[in-house]
Amino acid sequence: MCGIVGYTGPNNSVGPIIEGLSRLEYRGYDSAGICLKVENELQIIKKEGKLDNLKELINLHKPFSHTGIGHTRWATHGAVTTDNAHPHGNEIFAVVHNGIIENATTLKKDLFHEGYQFKSQTDSEVFLVLLTKFFNEGNSTLISISKAFSSITGNSAFVILEKASDKLYAIKRSAPLVVGENREFREAYVSSDPFALVGFAPRIYFPEDGVICEGIVTGSEVTVNFYELDLTHSNRYKFQSNSMSVDATSKGPYEHYMLKEIYEQPALIDKLAAYYIKNEGRKILDEMKGFRAQEWHITACGTAWHAGLVIKNFLEQVNHQKASVDIASEFRYRHPILNHGDVGLFISQSGETADTLASQELCKEKGIPTFSIVNVEGSTLFRNADKNFLIHAGVEIGVASTKAFTLQALTGYLMGLAMKGSLDDSLHYSEIKLLSNRISDLCGQSDFIKDVAEQIYTKKGFIFTGRGKYFPIALEGALKLKEIAYVHAEGYAAGELKHGPIALIDEDIVNIALVGPELLEKTLSNVEEVKARRGIIVVVGPKNHPEVEQIADAYIPLDFNGLQNLSPLYVNVALQFLAYHIAKLKGTDIDKPRNLAKSVTVE
Ligand code: G6P
How far apart are CA 307 and CA 247, in angstroms? Predict the structure, then answer.
């Protein structure tokens, strides 16, 4: 979602800001802008559309400035226009904002009556105007920030630039924010994501909610100060060295990040197994031995929610423990019954998804422990959880999540085995190795799946069906396809098809049928029902199966032998390839699909 990068230091701020914004492009956005302090003026350059549009403008003006802030906007309040793009600025301040100011309408009305004008339809500009009002009343910049921040409700992060100095100011409430320092080069940075600061700021700080951050660079040193809202010094922040490497973020020989991330899966699976079974992660799993929750409340969004559905099956079938799965935006408002002995299990790649965080908060308020299965160490979800199970996926850049899903589900499986006390080093290590080998084989068949994609990519709609443990995979397969290929795709429980969606079937609809060895006959009868109505059948099913070969118009044969519990993860990779190839044939923007964001920091 929206990305923020700010810089102050001896060099031209434009380079690191644009580089940082480019790195955050993957999160999804629809306009971009930059504000630079040039000779005591706050100069704003912004443009709707891709970052390239902004870069063109910058190339035209070739600005130089020691201090600046940049932003990529994912529209919430106000259409996608240049006026609504950030930064918003005036004679005194410029502001970039992530999140939503919930009381913006009321505040705007009051400010309007007081004679203040607005140039955009955004909620963000309300913060700028508030800041200016408090400053005009004679307050210092720090006090004005404190007062403006105290006046607003909702989750937000702001970075502020002032005409009067080269300082960077930032503050947040339940939104990602990181402040960076490079002592060697005397540079201060601020961003919504540490990834933007890799290679720039070796020292990073995560401020807590309501802490005002101030980055100052003088002739000889760089200082980052933290203040409470009453302007006393604050120690409510966490320091971390930025250990990410720039290499980890390159596309390598792959055409898209998504493809690279699909191919990374076998090696990451092996690494995760080694971490949790043989290395440091073992300690975390051993602590889980014998653990039982009265009920697991699994909560997540998007792909992570589908991983939650897979984990629910593991918990019920492997552990015989009760688990419910919720979409976070529903869980947080449906007044769930949370009892003593229950555990909230939150799954998230980014660890910053607003609804997931709010659901975690709800569990905390009700006094039940919260566990996370998360990729980003140090993320808000991670910091607020009582126990964290990292998935060690590395940076996932493709907006459509692939490797994170596989590793989330696998981590949940390992957690379950550990609770049961049945984590057998060699047995489970080999079981997981079998999964990574099969996925490796599948990676070798990508061209074959491409041929299947060629046969179906022009069709009108796609219905993914599966039973039992393949049902969550049907949902995930359909989500992947709609996310990146912009076609209508639905996931259904195979047995549910006749209760409505079968009405859609004709010769322009494809049924991607996930046919595992379990309940094979029953699933095939559902496929027959579609075939009888002239639907096109693509089976992802067991290899060398004459009945399947006969029914399918196209067939992705898989070797299920020995995989058992983990077979859904294998089937899912076939669907990742299928979605990728269909999207490629359609010519969409695979890594940055329209309208989508990677880290959804608004509810
Ligand atoms: C967005 C992304 C999805 C992701 C979901 C949850 O919708 O486009 O790919 O699955 O957010 O994100 P999280 O970071 O919490 O896993």
Answer: 28
Per residue in 506-526, pLDDT (tens digit) is 999 999 999 999 888 889 989
* pLDDT tens per residue across span 521-548: 889 989 999 998 999 999 999 999 999 9
Count CB atoms within 10 A of the CB of residue 500. Answer: 9
Give the pLDDT of residue 246: 67
The domain boundary residue, chosen from 228, 248, 268: 248
Side by side, which strands form the sheet with 323-327?
323-327, 296-300, 343-348, 370-374, 387-390
* DSSP 8-state class, residue 87: P
Name the residue type at position 585: L
Out of 216, 248, 280, pick the residue that ends a domain: 248
CATH of the domain at 342: 3.40.50.10490
- How far away, in angstroms, is 224 Cα from ligand 1 center? 32
158 in a structural domain: yes
Q: 601 in a domain, yes or no?
A: no
Count CB atoms within 10 A of the CB of residue 447. 9
Give the helix/strand (H/E) hosting 136: helix 124-136
The one catalytic residue in 2, 35, 301, 363 is 2
Ligand 1: residues whose CB is within 6 Å? 301-304, 348-350, 353, 356, 399-401, 596, 598-600
Expressed in angstroms and rounded, the spacing between residue 481 Cα and the centre of ligand 1 is 15
Q: Is residue 583 part of a domain?
A: yes
For residue 218, tell me if it sits in a domain.
Answer: yes
Q: Which domain holds residue 483?
A: 445-596
Is 598 part of the annotated catalytic residue set? yes
Pocket perturbation via mutation, ligand 1, pick of 350, 360, 482 by most ligand atoms within 8 A of CB: 350
Residues 405, 378: one domain?
yes
- 258 and 236 share a domain? no
* Residue with CA nearest ligand 1 atom 2: 598
CA of 368 relative to ligand 1 center, distance in Å: 24
pTM above 0.90, yes or no: no
Specify whether 396 is located in the same domain as 516.
no
35 catalytic per annotation: no
The helix or strand, by DSSP H or E, that contains position 271, with its residue range, turns out to be helix 265-273
Contact by Cβ (8 Å): 414, 423: yes
Per the structure, the count of domains in the chain is 3
Residues 191 and 277 in one domain: no
How far, in Å, is the centroid of ligand 1 from the Cα of 349?
7
Active-site residue (options: 46, 133, 592, 598): 598
CATH of the domain at 158: 3.60.20.10
Which residue CA neighbors atom 7 of ligand 1 most closely?
A: 302
Give the pLDDT band of residue 265 (cuts 50, 70, 90).
very high
